[in-house]
Amino acid sequence: MGWQARSPAMRPIRWPHGYRPSRNPLRRRCDRVEAAILGALLVVLAVAAPLAAIVVGHSVYHSATDARHTQLTTGHRVQAVLLTSAAWDPGGYFASAQARWTAPDGTRRTGTVFPAAGTPAGAEVQVWVDGSGRLTDEPLKPSQVQGQAVLAGVLAVMCVAVVLWGAGRQQGARPGTTNGGPPGRNGAVTAEPFAGRSGWR
Fold first, then answer.
1. Mean of pLDDT values over 55-73
2. Lower CB count within 10 Å: N or C terminus of the chain?
3. Helix H or strand E segment including 124
4. Cα–Cα distance for residue pair 42/51, rounded to 1 Å
5. Residues 35, 87 share a domain
6. Does residue 147 register a pLDDT over 70?
């Protein structure tokens, strides 16, 4: 059969073959070095990725745990009475209402709270306030602490993979690593002559 073009989709199938260990004497030394470097990058990924996930995950877990402990220590959960019914904001993302509550020191305060949409005026809802009675965020739940640690570990693995991928790309993009025929003068890659049915080149 005569010449047949190879589609780009076929190239990724043949690509790994060039990086397999080989004793072929015709193989260029730069190809052997490149294969060794890529193999080393894979080993580094296998070792560094789990280590980064453990270190970063533990660090974030301890930080989130400390933040939760601080929130539980300084925060107070009090009952607030809605002064208006909870209505959706103009953007339709959340519902809000005006409410009144009593601070830990006995001071009465009012402000905007975010109950479920449709909660009528006069209903009581729980809110978190600080020592002076100002609204504050609800303390992190244990599931949120664990979720932050897991997410940080996954992001750490992705960062390691991206760094090593960039190093591999930089290595593969250096001069003399272009796929094709044997190198010609000045390291240029030359195409091999075509061989048809008659065998001419």
1. 93
2. N
3. strand 124-129
4. 14
5. no
6. yes
What's the pLDDT score for residue 101?
95
Mean pLDDT across the stretch 182-199?
Answer: 48
User: What are the pLDDT digits (tens) for 87-103?
Assistant: 988 877 889 999 999 99
How would DSSP label each residue in 74-101? H-EEEEEEESS--EE-TTSS-EEEEEEE
Range of the domain at 127: 76-138
Across the chain, mean pLDDT equals 77
Task: Provide the CB-side half-sphere exposure for 117 (13 A, CA).
Answer: 8
Place of tokens 């409410």: 99
- Whether residues 66 and 147 fall in one domain: yes
C-beta separation of 156 from 53 below 8 A = yes
For residue 99, how many other CB atoms are within 10 A of its CB? 26
One DSSP character per residue, 111-178 reads: EEE---TTPPTT-EEEEEE-TTS-B-PPPPPHHHHHHHHHHHHHHHHHHHHHHHHHHHHHHHTSTT--
Same domain, 54 and 102: no
